[in-house]
Amino acid sequence: MLSEFDLIKRYFARHSILDSRIALGIGDDCALLNPSPGMQLAISSDMLVSGRHFFPDADPYTLGHKCLAVNLSDLAAMGAAPMAFTLALSLPEANPGWLAEFSRGLLALADEHGCHLIGGDTTKGPLNICITIFGELPPGTALRRDAAKAGDDIWVSGTLGDARLALAGYWNEVRLSTSEHQLAATRMHQPIPRIALGMALRGIAHAALDISDGLAGDLGHILEKSSVGATLFVDRLPAGPVLHKQSRDLRRQFTLNGGDDYELCFTAPASCRQDVQTAAAQASTTVTHIGQIVAETGLRLLDEQGQAVSLQYKSFDHFAHP
Ligand code: ADP
Ligand code: MG
After folding, report:
1. What is the pLDDT of residue 316?
2. Has residue 146 been placed in a domain?
3. Which of 10, 55, 178, 256 is at 20 to 30 A from 204, Cα to Cα?
4. Domain that holds residue 177
5. Which residue minimizes the CA distance to atom 12 of ligand 1?
């Protein structure tokens, strides 16, 4: 039987961290961080609960990836550079096979982004994974939700809706071939945090957030915080490669309301269109111009002919779905 300390040592502690910003990592009462001179810290936590955010039998490698990816995505949405994270883990049992795969998926993504595991807590209990992540950025450059301005273009990175389509496949709401379902499921289980894009948009974008609960609902947070409204062209929303082949109604529904894509939605002045495209190219990410911020509050949906589209748009609310 693994002790708590053996478990941390075997699966999570690294011998040395070659990053001058990490003064002390795992092993003491606290970790110690030295943010780069003049930089501001960006901090965020996300908790993933078994049966709520992932299936209890979820593949541990992709689960490790996803837990960190959703936290990195929050840094991306602020334009912050990753530094470090802590991991609070509640486990029903110390299963070596599960822990090896979980830590492999988690630390592979951590390495990809130079984001170091510096501490945490481990306890026995229902499977529950909580990560707190630390990033840094120059003061005054954060891409905040309250910074959208009337006249801004609205953009979205990558594609939307395939994660939601994967769920529809699991629930037999939609018939997909095995290969289509696998492709869509990869979007759901292994989201790509848009770190490079977020950083490249500093000084260009006004407001930004990452889409976890659906574009319509999440954009609503920017509109509310910025006291503005928006017009979205629903048929410009970039559908994922699998969703792309579905009916127009399903495309509209899932690109607007599908959660779990972790793409960035951001606003930028219309005068910065070229800068946005250059930032996207630098970050090797596609971006699509999907609408405009307007002074009148509320969200209006239009088709390509400029006709109003009435769609019941609603994002995922954990307390509305018991
Ligand atoms: P404390 O008694 O101060 O809570 P612990 O005994 O829980 O300390 O943890 C010992 C060390 O291991 C600490 O540095 C803590 O941050 C780290 N640690 C505990 N659990 C994890 C984990 N799941 N991942 C990474 N580090 C962890
Ligand atoms: Mg502890």
Report:
1. 47
2. no
3. 256
4. 153-302
5. 27
Three-class secondary structure of residue 45 per DSSP = strand
Examine the domain organization and report whether 115 and 194 are in the same domain.
Answer: no
Question: How many domains does the chain divide into?
Answer: 2
pLDDT for res 311: 65
- pLDDT for res 241: 94
Q: How confident is the model at residue 95 (pLDDT cuts 50, 70, 90)?
A: very high
| Ligand 1 near 99 CB (within 6 A) | no
Burial readout 111-143 (b: 16 or more C-beta within 10 A, e: otherwise): eebebbbbbbebeeeebbbbbbbbbbbeeebbb
Read off the pLDDT of residues 244-293 as tens digits, 9 standing for 90 and up.
Answer: 999 999 999 999 999 899 999 999 999 999 999 999 999 999 999 999 99
Determine the residue of 9, 122, 129 to mutate for testing ligand 1's pocket, defined as the one with the most ligand atoms within 8 A of the Cβ atom. Answer: 122
Q: What does the block give as tokens for 101?
A: 């795969």
pLDDT of 322: 39
CATH number assigned to the domain comprising residue 72 = 3.30.1330.10
- pTM of the shown model: 0.94
